[in-house]
Fold:
Amino acid sequence: MDSLTVLISPLSWGFGHAGRMIPLAMELQKRGAKIIFAADAPLLEMAGREIPGITAVEIAGLRMRYSRLLPQYICIFLQLPHIIASAVRDHRTLRCLVSEYKPSVIISDNRFGFYNRSIFSVYVTHQLRIPFPRLLRFMEPLAMWMHRIIINRFDLCLVPDFPGSVNLSGRLSHGVRLTRNTIFCGPLSRFEIPGGTEPAIPDQGYPVCLLLSGPEPQSTLLLERIADTLSGFSMVILSATPLPLFMKETPPGIRVITTPDNPTMRKMLISSSLVIARSGYSSVMELVSLGKGAVIIPTPGQPEQEYLGRHLNGRFGFITMSQDNLEKLHEIAEERTPDHFPRRSGVNDALFAGKHDSTGTAKTIENLPAAAPLLEKTIDYLLEHKEK
Structure:
């Protein structure tokens, strides 16, 4: 194929958006593409570690502030002017990047302003429908209409999910009228485990693995509650950022790994008897790709995660709990960690094995289609239509 330069820029809203760009970038590299990765410094460090041979370009990211008292959706609403200003800044920044690197394709993961009318521009999102809390759900049609305007500024919209009735995102991306340029490209996971296979479990591992992610202060609040609820359990904490001060002196039996690389993260997730994580969509895709069930805990006040928690509860090996009500977590940890307590059979074993949903209907991870062929077909389509 002719020399192809692809400029990729994920939203700097945690590490999830950057993580799901890794399989996309690596598949493009297999086709001979040169990858330019534009993001803020922490995301560039992650991308440079996982994607060999990329050109890293540091640009400003979106910085959001959250509250211990206000729900996250209110904090986001109050910062809408900041979000709009960030999109305008992205659009201006992109002009400079286009002039310098002359990309053939631009891929934006939820960066609204990262498109160019003269270059084939791709938008990645798993939220064709932006969810609102129950009392504000009347605003969803307006939000969808506004999002469609943004999507239509791009040449192609990729939804990282399966297109059929068996899917991960539920009403976030299904049951909506699709724009003409929308394609379901399959879940994007940096672990690259083919659908329908379950990796071998190492003999040794920490009984409990906490995948700590998401914005402050809720990340610290979750860590405090988990540490209190599972006091005495051996645990590994995989954290995207340095831990708060109260955890600087790690208690016995707890190991903390900050910004783990993919092989380390994969090994710890697979080898743990119990995984605890936020219900962020990128985390869900990664766990499913590993055939790994988990207790998922939505970030309070974040409608997307709260919906995913309800949608996935009892399906594909997931059990959902509220951050404010973790009473059953200790019991589940006892059942899932035979090194600490005698193993007891029960519904939780079936759920974590991905054997049944909450109604007893077969909903195994193996029921999901393979993601790799969808991604390959998507890249084929992109390369065929990249000329404007």
